[in-house]
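To fix ideas, we reproduce below a protein record of this kind.
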Amino acid sequence: MSYDILFNKALQLHEAGQFEEAEQIYRQILETAPEQPDVLNLLGLVAQAKGVQQEACDLFARAIKANPDNPAFYYNLAFSLRLDGKPHEALQYFSKVISLRPEMPEVYNETAQLRFRLGQVEAARQDWARALSLNPEFAEAAANLADSYSSENSPKAIAELENVVRKYPEGALGFYYLSRLYLAQHSYSQAWIAASRAKELAPASDEVRVILGQLSLVDGKTDNAKVYFEKALLLNSRNIAALSGAAALDAQTENFEAAEQKYKKIIDLDEHNFEAHNNYAEMLYRQGRTAEALEEYRQAVIANPKSAEVSNNLAAILKDIGDYEQAMGLLMNALALKPDLEEASVNMAETLVLYAAKNREEALKIAQNWRRLMPDNVFAVHTADAFEGENSEVNQIYAERLFDHFADHYELVVKTLGYAVPLAVGRIAGNDQVSVVDLGCGTGLAGKAVKGPGRYLVGVDVSQKMLDEAAKKDVYDKLVKEDALTFLQHNEAFGMVIAADVFGYVGDIRPIVRAAKDAILIFSIETTDKNDFEMAPNGRYRHHPDYIRRVLEEEGYRIEKQEALVLRSEGGQPVDGLIYRAEKSSL
């Protein structure tokens, strides 16, 4: 078969997207004409389309060597260098194209994008302006120029892009950029309109599908989002944003194997991708694959050492495996980067309590230093006070912030700790047909245990997030955000007052007992055999049973029932306590 026939057949296959078949014929031609520049160039384009950029670059370089005056060869080489993440080399070869053919607006659009990514913003804008001067109808260059203002002045970028889409209503890129900006500004309806128009104009755009997927997530339509991300990946299997979105949805539905494949692919494409390492680590930790999660978190820290959240997450794992010193170092780093990251404060307090069992003196020094460095941090103040055995002035604020933090996963945590108080409260409360106030009601565990016919039930808590969770149980007739003592002092008497696990955050219980106004009292305590009451290193109060009996008697109560029970486990050890039912003495 003659050269021309082979070449034309290969071209037909290439244009039809049958790259493998075209490549075989191109290589067959090269066996007899090894340096034929057009064939080398076409083979380079096949390699470029397959994503094998180094091979593509080698082939384009050979084509240039055989024919150094063809600008198309330089353009293709520059394009592959750009795809291969080599912007400086790409600029060099695009500049060669300009020297051979200075009137190509497409080349200026390419050089502008490269310069912009290299931080050469004004030079990039000059190149886009040059492209538009050569072709005033070049919608892509106009959209790129308008979008170049998005990071420094998003209102200006939006205004410029609105002008672009009016001038070039058939240009998809302007609508895509608008949808991205509107999404970032939470202008979701406008983002939908722009993204939908972009999809009409560019039905094969994977990037537009990603925006539509992200907007579907905002609307809570996860099934739609999954379809958009999967369609984007069919169009471009290397789209990192689509892989990330699809992986997150797989992990959310516990399709961990599929999610893992996607996270690994992202990391193969971009080994320093912070989001992929971080999200993959979180998923691994959820699966109990602690060692692998640790490694991924470490990679995330390398990718972004300024992320307070990752330092906190890595520290949480180290805390769980007993590496307290390294955990505390990471947590202090997280708080230095982001002082208002409350989860890091909670983890720091918990880690110090665990470390104190190993080295109390050193833990005290660290707690005091934390309080000195961050005197406005209630967790730092409360923890240091607890270690010193002092009553803390920030008790109420501490409790509110702590339970706001734990509200979303409180019941999972207490289940893990074997929390026994709610069932004991339900048992000891009996069936009295009285109005009941559940102080420190939390998510409603005790309320659920005591709710019954004829009982009007009010829940009181300092944490609004806890109250929101309690409302979902639909057992309370009323929920109130207020401190326990304040509520009792400013409301009519109830028939029964429940304080399940409340006195762990109260030293002197007398004011609450007095404010109960003759109600039946149901409450639990963590016990001590030393002082009347004392703050333990974990920041909770312990009470002496003799002190409880004395206060109740002095306030006119008699103990009807007193039961010993294990309140919960802490650090793998049982926490002993008592639960009481006390009623006003008839004498």
Remarks:
- The mean pLDDT is 89.
- Strands lie at 436-439, 457-461, 478-481, 496-499, 520-526, 533-535, 541-543, 557-570, 573-584.
- Residues 16 and 548 are 87 Å apart (CA to CA).
